[in-house]
């Protein structure tokens, strides 16, 4: 009888399946193919996509029976890291708000009515990096005060997936926005901010 795979191997395989499904069903070609079959993209597609992603992610995280603790932040440093994670969470919520929370979660698509034309968001954190959702998600993962083997694997695999996913997403955005997005790419870095730009963005008044 063959020995079962180690937990970390199961975790990696499950994460790869999650990443494949997450990318596949987000691909424009797949959505167009489903739209042709259904005579238009189903209104609940985005919501179903998010729910499927959530179920698959939970499935990934249950791969480990138990995970060794690699390190933990002692004393006040643990509190500092939790507070920094909270800040990252607030920033992530603001990024989603700027791009449209209803669209992101798939709720707005359920309501019948005219479809608003997509627009390129370049203010706020999007003036600092082109993919702030990915950047602050990585920072959030890195700041976990209790680092287990499972969490470390999740952080490394997620960072790789965010970079690859960002590159794929940029191809779609170039097709959608053309020269507008090309100019945006020339002035705003991909995922690692220029600190001069961060300082300038912090001093710039919020646009109404």
Fold and architecture overview:
The protein has 208 residues and is mainly alpha-helical. It has one domain (7-203): Up-down Bundle (Four Helix Bundle (Hemerythrin (Met), subunit A)). It has nine helices and two strands, in the order αααβαααβααα. It has helices at residues 7-24, 28-37, 45-61, 75-99, 101-105, 132-142, 149-177, 179-187, 195-203, and strands spanning 69-72, 146-148. Strands 1-2 form a two-stranded antiparallel sheet. α4 runs antiparallel to α6 (132-142) and α6 packs antiparallel against α7 (149-177). The chain is globular, with a radius of gyration of 19 Å. The chain starts with 6 loop residues before the first helix and ends in a 5-residue tail after the last helix. The model has no long low-confidence stretch (mean pLDDT 86).
Q: What's the count of strands?
A: 2
The helix/strand order is: HHHEHHHEHHH
Which range does the strand content fall in?
Answer: under 5%
* Straight-line distance between termini: 66 Å
Strand sequence of the main sheet, in spatial order? 1-2
Radius of gyration: 19 Å
Which outline best applies? globular
Helical percentage: 55-70%
Structural class: mainly alpha
CATH topology term = Four Helix Bundle (Hemerythrin (Met), subunit A)
The profile of the biggest β sheet is: 2 strands, antiparallel
Number of domains: 1
Unreliable stretches (pLDDT < 50, length at least 5) are: none
């Amino acid at each position: 009888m063959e020995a079962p795979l180690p937990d970390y191997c199961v975790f990696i395989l499950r994460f790869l399946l999650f990443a494949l499904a997450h990318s596949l069903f987000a691909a424009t070609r797949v959505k167009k193919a489903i739209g042709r079959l259904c005579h238009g993209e189903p209104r609940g597609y985005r919501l179903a996509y998010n729910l499927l992603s959530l179920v698959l992610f939970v499935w990934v995280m249950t791969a480990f029976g138990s995970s060794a603790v690699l390190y933990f932040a002692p004393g006040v440093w643990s509190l500092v890291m939790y507070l920094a994670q909270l800040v990252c969470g607030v920033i992530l919520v603001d990024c989603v708000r700027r791009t449209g929370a209803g669209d992101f979660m798939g709720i707005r698509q359920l309501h019948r009515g005219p479809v608003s034309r997509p627009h390129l968001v370049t203010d706020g954190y999007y003036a600092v990096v082109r993919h702030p959702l990915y950047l602050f998600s990585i920072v959030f993962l890195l700041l976990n005060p209790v680092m287990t083997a499972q969490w470390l694997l999740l952080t490394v695999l997620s960072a790789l997936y965010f970079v690859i996913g960002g590159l794929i997403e940029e191809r779609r955005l170039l097709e959608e926005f053309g020269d507008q997005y090309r100019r945006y790419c020339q002035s705003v870095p991909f995922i690692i901010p220029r600190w001069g730009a961060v300082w300038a963005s912090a001093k710039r008044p919020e646009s109404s």
